[in-house]
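ok so i was messing around last nite and threw this chain in just to see what happens. nothing serious, just curious
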Amino acid sequence: MHELEPITPDQALDYYLDHRAREVSDATLRSHESRLSIFVGWCDEMDIDNLNELTGRKPHEYRLWRRDYNGGLKPVSEKTQMDTLRVFIRFTETIDGVPKDLSEKVQSPDLSAMEDVREVMLIADRAQAVLDYLGTYEYASRPHVVLALDLYTMMRRGAVLG
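result:
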């Protein structure tokens, strides 16, 4: 059995971001940093200066706190927050910073199929006006091409961007 080595939340976040930098896009890395910075702030607020102190209860307490922090989270955002925390904790296990299998205790809400769907519609007249503008002033730019594909093929946005 490996003994835990003391590590501050800030140090663990730096190690994690350095580790992930070669595996994920810059946008994903920034998203993880943003989400996990809130966790690091919570640790500071709770006087947790060594992640060795984390138990299975602490991620649950963080989830409850995070759910209500800054006006509250929708279930899909809460799931994203907790899933990111789980990945971070799993990494921190590999560097002997938290107890083994702590990541398995990080709970994330189950979502219904409809909770994970965004229902934002672009009105046809507005879409055409934007497309006309892009066609005149930013012809063949990424936004122009993406919007044209969105409107004329009805592909899912993720597929167009991919």
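not much to say yet. The two ends are 43 Å apart (CA to CA).
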